[in-house]
Amino acid sequence: MSRYLVPKNTYRVELKVSNSRFITTIGPASSTKAAHDFIKRIREEMPDATHHVYAFKIGYGASVSEGLSDDGEPSGTSGPPALAVVRGSGVGDVVLVITRYFGGTKLGTGGLVAAYTQAAQQAFSALETEEKVTRLAFTMEIPYSLFEKVRILLDEYACVVKEPEYGSDVKIEYLIPEENADAFSGKIRDLTAGRSCPRLVEEG
To answer: Whole-model pTM?
Structure first.
């Protein structure tokens, strides 16, 4: 998908269950490395905690990378419930760490699942998101006589345009939302009678 919601910033919430503290830190991560760096920072910030359970999802839709850890909690009682909440959130490029300070009362398998699920849900309730748009970088050269018409098309298709270079023709480099790229290229080819053909530079 070329558009999806991502965390706007890093947020932290706390939940208390039977004297145990569950401190959930949630934030953006654009890669698995960024997610693991985020997790490492939380571990370093609270080194005396009993557990640092985490879950993350990088990307969205059909192409995602996921990770999770129970971090010493009974298998399946913490990481998987947290990841289930992440998957159901509608948010991508997200990592959360649920830091537990054990309060002396064992919660049992069902209690742990419920506590970690609630902690993750509470974090997403506090989370502010923004839309991430995957854009493709293109370059093209157009005749001066068509420059104004092309500028109108660039606006209509939500392009981000660098400063044009003026030579024998006008060279334009632009970023365009992925879903608009094919239609825009077709418009340019039609407008210039095939003289100008936008060329893909990179995806970013």
So the answer is: 0.74
